[in-house]
Structure formats: structure tokens, C-alpha cells
């Protein structure tokens, strides 16, 4: 048997489960999972009590402090906040010094006309341009803050998904190791039957191959876990080679709230949706500012002229910009900001649609995983185990061939692994739902 490589892979052997369905009562998931955990040494209480258990809450706390991507998102907020006073400030004034009205003939001085000048020049944008520009910067800063919250939620969801996937691999390795032990027991039975002349050498060879293939699957799973632990370490911002101990995988899979409830929560509380709306408002403010750029900026100039032998002069001047190249500057800018506004509105609508669709998908995935996990743990796995016991008894007396016995045990192996895989899938979907709606659905722990 090979451990499923792709998430969501499902192998169903109804032909095995069917004949025994009427004889085996359905067992609640929590009870059956306890039986399963006891059989494979995976009792959640024992895992949680181990000293090297790596708890998800501790990883989340560390990721909140150390993850570089989250740190970059938070620094982006600081960058955006520093832009607000910049766009709201007037252009820097100019201080002018010089000598005025010096004759070119001999570069001498004219007592009546030559003077020492000191002055100041200040440009004032057309009223409204600065106000709308500052408003735009404020909306963009708020959008960046909301984006940082979205990055934080998605980081936690991704960390949980990898954590639960690694927890599933741990349990799959234990299941396969136990299956390998059973196959070795079958090998001993086959060797004993062959030694007394009741069996054939082919059964012994097939038993050896089955044990070797299970060893191969265990090796693949162990390498997969190494890759997942490296990803966990990367997400929490620590060295890739730090050991990752036992991981928790909750057994109980509660029923989620309705899709309508989850959708409303996601629409109301998802940070990226609010950020998209802030960017729409920022684009609207930018468009209003662009419409005012066609009006000229106003420049005020004041000069004081000193004439040592005569009365000093005071000069006051007002200048306006002439939008001579408006067709190449101001008007294209207005069209650009209008296009930005329409673009942000389209992005907001797309994100809204995507959020609603994703909530529906995740709830469906979680419910599928929950119901199948209950079916496997409560009905199919016990039936498959009963089939193994029956096949083993029949093989001992020569009533079935060896491959029937092996295939029966491999079926148990498949369903036991699939059961823990479904539990991991449920909690992965739950983690992403939590990221979308801002809290664990329905108060699930």
C-alpha cells in the first residue's frame, strides 16, 4: 500500500464493506477514534502529555513574532502612515538672496537703483488638491493595515494546514508500521505452512514483497514529514533543521454553521474585503484630486530691497501656472485616475465573489471530511478488520489464498490512513474558514 500523495485522494472498497454492513453497528466518531488511537498508540491525551509535544498555539505565537512576511506587511503600514503628512504639506518655500539692478556698464552701482534683495517664494496648490491627496493617502494606509491583518490570518491558516498535515503523516506512519508488523506475522504463518508442506513458496515470496512495499511507503512518509517540518520552521521564522516533536490532531469534528451564517461573517469581517473598499475610496479621492490639477497653482513672492542711501523697496508678486500642456499631463492624469477607480471597483467585486465561493467550498470540504471520517471510523474500518480476522482464520486452514489475506489487511491500512487524513482535511478547511471569517466557526475550539 502506498500512502496517498494528493490531498483529497479517496479509495473506496465497498465490495469489502458491503457484506458486513448489516452485521456491524455504526460507532460514533469520537468513540471509534478512541479505539483507533488505543490500537495504534495515538491517544490524544497521551500525545498531549508528552514533553516534546509541539502545540499549535505555541507555533502561532512564535509566527506572530518572527515570520518575515508578516513583519514586512506591518512595516508597510508604517511606510503608508508616513506618507500622509507628506502629501498634506505645502511645498517648501524658497528663500531668495541677491543684488538687484546693478548696471552692466562697468558692473558698478547706481545708488538709486541698485539694492540688496532678500525675499521668499511660496507655491500654493489649487484648493482641494492637497485635501483629496491626503484623504487618498489615509485610505491607502488603512488598506495596508487591513492587508497586514489578512496576511496574519492567512499565515495562521497556512501554519495550521501544514501542522495538521504533518500530524496526519505521523499517525499514518504508525498505522503503516503496525500494518507491517501484521504482514510480518502473516509471513511467519506462510513460512510455517510452507515448512510443513501445507503452503507454497509463492506465498512466502509474496509476503516478503508485501513487507518490503510497506517499508517503502513508510520511508516515503518519513521524508514527507521532514519536508513538512521544514515548512513549519520556515513559517514560524526559525532554522529549518530544528526538530519538531509530537503534533496534535483533534479527534472530534463538530458540525459547522450554515453557509449563510459563514458567508455573512466573511463578508463583514474579512480584512482584505475591507481593504479593497478602502482602495476604492482612495481611488475616488485620487480622481477628485486629478480633476483639480487642471486649475493652476498659485505662487506668492515677497521681496525686500535695501538701498543704503535711499528709501528701501518692498515687492509683492502673484503668479499662476498656465496649463499649456494639459493634453499631455493633466488630462491623461485625470483619465488614469478614473481607470484606477474602475479597476479597484472591479477588484473589490471579484474579491467579494471569490470570498463567498471559497466559504462555500471550504464548508463543503469540511463536511465531506467529517461525514466520511465518521463513516470510515464507525463502520468501514471495523468491518474491514473483521474481514482480516476471517481471512486469517481461513488461510490457516487453507480455505483462501495468501493474497486474499494480504489484500484484506491492506484495505484496513488504506481506510485507517484515510480516516486520519480526513481528520486533517477537516481541520485544514476549518483553519482557512477561520481566516476568512475572523473567528473559529460556531465557537469550535
Explain what this protein looks like in three dimensions.
The protein is an alpha+beta fold and 445 residues long. It has 2 domains: 14-90 and 126-293 and 329-443, Outer membrane efflux proteins (OEP), CATH 1.20.1600; 93-124 and 296-324. Helices cover 66% and strands 8% of the residues. It contains 11 helices and 4 strands, in the order αααααββααααββαα. It has helices spanning 14-17, 29-40, 44-49, 56-66, 68-88, 129-195, 201-235, 259-269, 271-292, 330-396, 402-437; strands spanning 94-100, 115-124, 298-306, 313-320. The protein has a 4-stranded antiparallel sheet with strand order 1-2-3-4, with no helix packed on it. A hairpin with a 6-residue loop joins strand 3 (298-306) and strand 4. The longest helix has 67 residues, at 129-195. It is elongated, with a radius of gyration of 37 Å. The two termini are 34 Å apart. The model is unreliable at 1-51 (pLDDT under 50).
Amino acid at each position: 500500500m502506498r500512502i496517498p500523495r494528493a490531498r483529497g485522494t479517496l479509495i473506496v472498497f465497498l465490495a469489502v464493506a458491503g457484506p458486513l454492513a448489516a452485521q456491524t453497528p455504526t460507532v460514533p466518531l469520537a468513540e471509534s477514534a478512541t479505539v483507533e488511537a488505543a490500537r495504534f498508540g495515538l491517544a490524544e491525551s497521551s500525545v498531549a502529555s508528552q514533553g516534546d509535544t509541539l502545540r499549535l498555539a505555541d507555533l502561532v505565537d512564535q509566527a506572530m513574532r518572527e515570520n518575515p512576511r508578516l513583519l514586512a506587511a506591518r512595516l508597510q503600514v508604517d511606510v503608508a502612515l508616513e506618507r500622509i503628512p507628506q502629501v498634506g504639506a505645502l511645498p517648501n518655500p524658497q528663500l531668495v538672496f541677491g543684488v538687484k539692478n546693478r548696471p552692466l556698464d562697468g558692473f558698478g552701482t547706481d545708488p538709486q537703483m541698485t539694492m540688496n534683495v532678500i525675499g521668499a517664494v511660496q507655491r500654493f496648490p489649487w484648493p482641494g488638491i492637497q485635501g483629496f491627496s491626503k484623504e487618498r493617502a489615509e485610505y491607502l494606509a488603512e488598506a495596508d493595515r487591513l492587508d497586514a491583518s489578512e496576511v496574519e490570518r492567512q499565515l495562521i491558516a497556512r501554519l495550521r494546514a501544514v501542522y495538521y498535515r504533518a500530524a496526519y503523516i505521523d499517525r499514518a506512519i504508525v498505522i503503516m508500521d503496525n500494518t507491517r508488523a501484521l504482514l510480518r506475522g502473516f509471513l511467519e504463518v506462510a513460512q510455517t505452512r510452507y515448512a510443513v508442506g501445507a503452503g507454497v513458496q509463492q506465498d512466502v515470496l509474496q509476503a516478503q514483497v508485501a513487507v518490503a512495499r510497506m517499508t517503502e511507503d513508510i520511508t516515503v512518509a518519513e521524508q514527507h514529514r521532514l519536508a513538512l517540518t521544514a515548512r513549519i520552521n520556515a513559517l514560524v521564522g526559525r532554522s529549518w533543521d530544528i526538530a519538531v516533536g509530537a503534533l496534535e490532531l483533534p479527534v472530534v469534528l463538530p458540525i459547522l454553521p450554515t453557509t449563510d451564517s459563514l458567508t455573512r461573517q466573511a463578508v463583514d469581517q474579512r480584512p482584505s474585503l475591507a481593504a479593497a473598499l478602502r482602495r476604492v475610496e482612495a481611488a475616488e479621492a485620487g480622481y477628485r484630486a486629478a480633476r483639480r490639477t487642471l486649475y493652476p497653482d498659485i505662487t506668492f513672492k515677497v521681496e525686500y530691497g535695501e538701498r543704503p542711501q535711499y528709501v528701501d523697496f518692498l515687492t509683492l508678486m502673484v503668479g499662476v501656472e498656465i496649463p499649456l500642456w494639459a493634453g499631455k499631463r493633466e488630462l491623461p492624469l485625470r483619465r488614469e485616475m478614473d481607470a484606477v477607480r474602475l479597476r479597484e471597483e472591479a477588484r473589490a467585486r471579484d474579491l467579494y465573489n471569490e470570498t463567498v465561493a471559497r466559504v462555500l467550498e471550504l464548508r463543503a470540504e469540511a463536511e465531506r471530511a467529517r461525514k466520511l471520517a465518521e463513516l470510515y471510523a464507525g463502520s468501514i474500518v471495523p468491518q474491514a478488520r473483521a474481514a482480516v480476522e476471517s481471512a486469517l482464520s481461513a488461510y490457516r486452514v487453507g480455505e483462501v489464498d495468501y493474497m486474499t489475506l494480504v489484500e484484506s489487511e491492506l484495505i484496513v491500512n488504506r481506510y485507517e490512513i484515510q480516516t486520519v487524513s480526513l481528520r486533517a482535511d477537516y481541520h485544514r478547511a476549518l483553519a482557512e474558514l477561520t481566516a476568512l471569517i475572523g473567528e473559529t466557526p460556531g465557537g469550535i475550539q
